């Protein structure tokens, strides 16, 4: 995604210190432009504040944003902010739960995300 010019951020229910440690342990921190923990907002998921704060910091509009998450609160947060949402079934919630939360689409693996973003044109 980064190679294709996609800016990535993470908004989590974890606190910021734990989130940064997790990203470092996963060896992906260098790909993340903005990190936002639950302790960085007054109103966490499913409120739109995490997305809106991220958009303000990075200079993007909701209309050009894709929120990807594995829980219904992630989908609701994205929808509440006016972003397109993508549920992923390889996390904590089922396809049905993500669809019921209103995900614009649901995928089963990361390759589907790349294909969806680029419409099969990499």
Kindly estimate the percentage of residues that lie in beta strands according to DSSP.
15-25%
Report the order of strands and helices: EHEHEHEHEH
What is the percent of helical residues?
A: 25-40%
Strand order of the largest sheet: 3-4-5
Number of continuous helical runs? 5
- The rounded Rg comes to 14 Å
Give a quick account of the main beta sheet: strands, pairing sense, barrel closure. Answer: 3 strands, parallel
Distance from N terminus to C terminus (CA atoms, Å) equals 10 Å
Report mean pLDDT, rounded to a whole number: 93
**Which structural class do the helices and strands define?**
alpha/beta
How would you portray this structure in words?
The protein has 122 residues and is an alpha/beta fold. Helix content is 37%, strand content 17%. The strands form two sheets. Strands 3-4-5 form a three-stranded parallel beta sheet, sandwiched between helices. The chain has a two-stranded parallel sheet with strand order 1-2. β3, α3 and β4 form a beta-alpha-beta unit. The N and C termini lie close together (10 Å). The model has no long low-confidence stretch (mean pLDDT 93).
Keywords:
122 residues, alpha/beta, three-stranded parallel beta sheet, two-stranded parallel sheet, 5 helices, 5 strands
């Amino acid at each position: 995604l980064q190679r294709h010019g996609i800016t990535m951020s993470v908004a989590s229910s974890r606190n910021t210190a734990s989130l940064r440690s997790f990203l470092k342990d996963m060896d992906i921190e260098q790909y993340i432009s903005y990190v936002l923990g639950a302790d960085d907002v007054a109103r966490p998921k499913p409120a739109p504040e995490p997305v809106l704060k991220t958009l303000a910091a990075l200079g993007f509009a909701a209309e050009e944003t894709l929120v990807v998450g594995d829980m219904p609160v992630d989908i609701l947060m994205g929808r509440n902010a006016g972003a397109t949402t993508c549920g992923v079934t390889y996390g904590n919630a089922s396809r049905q739960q993500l669809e019921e939360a209103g995900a614009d689409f649901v995928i089963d693996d990361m390759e589907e995300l790349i294909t969806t973003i680029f419409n099969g044109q990499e």
